[in-house]
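Internal ticket #5521
Category: modeling
Description: The requester needs a full-assembly model to guide mutagenesis choices. All entity lines are attached below as received. Residue total reported by intake: 520.
Assigned to: D.W.
Attached entities:
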Amino acid sequence: MQINGIQIDDTFAEAFDMRGTRVIITAQTLKWAYHAANAMTGFATSVIGCGVEAGIERELSSDETPDGRPGVSILMFAMGSKVLMKQLETRMGQCILTCPTAAAFSGIESPDKISLGKHLRYFGDGFQTSKLIAGKRYWRIPVMDGEFLVQETTGMVRAIGGGNFLILATSQPAALAAAETAIIAMKQVPNVIMPFPGGVVRSGSKVGSKYKTMFASTNDAFCPTLKGLTKTELSPEIESVMEIVIDGMSFEDITTSMRVGIQAICKLKNSGVNRISAGNYGGKLGPHHFKLYEILK
Amino acid sequence: MTALTFTLKKNPSFKVDCRKLSPDKLGGLSVTEIIKLNLLNQNNSPKVADFFEVSGTDTEQIIFKNSTSQLDYIGYKMSRGCITIEGDCGNFLGANMRNGSIICQGTAGDRVGDQLRRGLILIDGSAGDYCGSRMIAGTIGVYGKAGNYAGFAMRRGTLLLTKLPKLHATIQDCGTHSLPFLALLFQSFKPLKSAFNHVKSQRVQRYAGDLACGGNGEILVII
């Protein structure tokens, strides 16, 4: 398949089952909501080393938040519910509790609940108080700037992580510019995040390594400087490859996100992008396959 | 379904105990059964029909019309639903309440929300002495004036007032604050027919107490 001269590979992205949650962070100003959210979603690019993958889903205006202040919604994904609970509690304690004027609320309803402020309340040392408002329990924890308001729990849902596509371009600047264009478009899609720095990852990995202690290593087939050394996937004119990884609440959300991102790249003129491909492990590891041809039909 | 409505026929010359007229006690009963109910647990008890005209079917939404300060114990031990009092009410409004909401559009007597555990009581007019006494948790709002010793022996919960009443020595001033949770609380008042649904200010004078009972309760006086 070709779209505006860009070749689309007949391949698929392979993704995994995850557990996901959404948290709404508000603050006195949007700036401070971002400070809290950026801290909370920092060092959360990959479950391999960070435990969770997290990112800012979108900005929320003051009429979209429970307390009428500006805020942002955060999505957080982990391979299992225990890890997600642990990481959420840790990050709430270190990043939201500590951030001036910040408050945190549940962003998703689900029968499965995980703690948002349920355990964090003990920071109040007995001075914490709860309020049950419209059927939802909130905790008020006295802190030095006033009170930290946090909902007791948020919902946890089944989600999918690891949707992806690769941008193969004739130069590094061209690959990066195309990736940035895609990310701008993909950020308009709800229910997804792109957890890597700026939404883009340059160090795609393969399973395994020549070193026994490493269970993932560089994806040499897509490394342009190894074209003569390894069984490469790259044609001679490709000088740089960027990957965009997507975690989402559902298969449809990730499909939409991938379509929007790839179409945004394909609309560019003289972008230097030659091919769009996707990363997989032969289809044997992840149950969710995002086939590029079907996505772009 | 229309709200179950108790219209007081005439103001009684003595106190009437209304503790049996709550959503918990009346659930599943027809109007015919309700008017025959004894108001007290004794053989010569007055019946509902002696005082009230009853109409409507929804026992989760109860309305008292022509209500006066002779009606005590409205909402006693209720755990669900909403009671609206179109008029005044007597003592022990919402005493031992477990959940649900009570809106009083007139004035209330003494000991509003005595031993209140959970739920919401909003009073548009004034409340008598010992409002929120022995309160365990929950929220009481008095838009008018609260009587002496509000919050006496309260353990937890919030008393929301607009004027500072005479307080017991074991309730202490904690200063003036803007409390973020009030935005949520006031938002939840919006659908209610109460004077509180116009309140927007999150600026309050906070009194904590009763220190003789743990001190985790609070009286917030809206500034």
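Resolution: model delivered.
Comment from assignee: The helical segments of chain B are 23-26, 31-35, 48-51, 181-189.
Ticket closed.
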